[in-house]
Amino acid sequence: MSPLVDLLVGPHGIDRYLELIRPDLTVRDASARAVAVHHQTKRSVTLTLRPNAAWTGFQAGQFARIGVDIDGVRRTRTYSPSCSQHRADGLLELTVTTHPEGLVSRHLRHGLRPGQVLHLAEAQGDFVLPARRPERLVLISGGSGVTPVISMLRTLCDEGHQGDVAFVHYARTADDWLYQREVEALAAGRPNVTVDYVTTREGGRHIDERSVRALIGGRDPASAVAAVCGPPALIEAVRAIWQHAPERVLAESFTPPSLNVGDTAADGTLHFLRSEIAAPIAQGTLLEQAEAAGLTPDFGCRMGICHTCTCRKTAGAVRDVRTGQVSTEEDVDIQLCVSVPAGDVALEL
Question: Which of 54, 101, 289, 335 has the fewest beta carbons closer than 10 A?
C-alpha cells in the first residue's frame, strides 16, 4: 500500500475502512471466512476456514491467535491448525475442544456459522518438524493436543515421507477420539505408519512411562524423534523414555503447568495507566488482577506460550512464576499471565 493512501486513511489505516465493506477484505490484517463447521465429537468443533491473501501460512505444529467478536468485544484465543501445511486448496482447518467455562470455544461450537469471519494472527511456535525429516518418528498426543500432531502426520503424508512413523493418541473415552477414521485410513495405505488410539477411562490405560513405552513398539529413543503434545503427565512419560537423548524430544503442552503464584500478595498498588485505574495488589497473576479490576486484556494460552497478553511495564518489579526471576527494569515487555507483582507496578494497560 502506498504512503499516500496510508496518509489519506490515517490514523486507522485502510484495513479499517475495507472491513466496513467486507470483513475479510483487508490488505495487511489476516482474516479467514468460515467455509464449513463440523462436529466430530460432542465436545469439539472442526472449522474449515478460507484465509485471505494477508495470511502467510504455517508450519505443521505451530499455533495462531484467532480473534472472534462476541457481543461487540473481540476475544482472542490460541489454536493449532490441524490440516497439512501443504493443503492444496489453501483452506485452514482448526479443531477446538469445548470447555464448559470457555467463552470462545462455546461460541465457536454453538454460534459460528459458514460465512462468518474470524481474525487471524501470524503463526508462531517452535513445535515443528525438523527441516530434515527424521527416519524414525513417534507422534504422541493426548486430548486436544492431537491437533498439531495430526497436522504433522498429514504434512508427512503429503510429502510422501517413507520413514517409520508411529502415531499414538490418548483420550478419555472412545467418544472423544478425534480423526480416528482418517488416521486409520492413512495408515492402511502406508505400511510405514502405525496407529494406536487409546482410552484412559472405561478400563483403559494410564498415561505413564510404562504405557507409552508399550505403545511405541520397542522403537529406540537413541534413533527415533518424539513429538508429543498433551497433558504434563504424558510429556513427563515421554521425556523419561528419552532421558538419554532429550534433544530428540519435541514437546508442547495444552495444559497450563503448575505455576508458583505464591501464598501471599506483595504490598503495593497496580497502576493501569491507559485505563486510569489503580488497584491494591491482590493474589494472582497480573492478567487475573487486571481482569478483576474490570479490564479485558487480550490473552490466548494463559500459560506463557503464545505471548498474546504481552504488555509494557513502565515501572515496578514483577516475578515470573515459572522461573522465580524478578524483573525491575523500566519500559520492558512482560507476559501478564505468568507474572505477579513484587511491589508497585505500572502497566500500559
Answer: 101
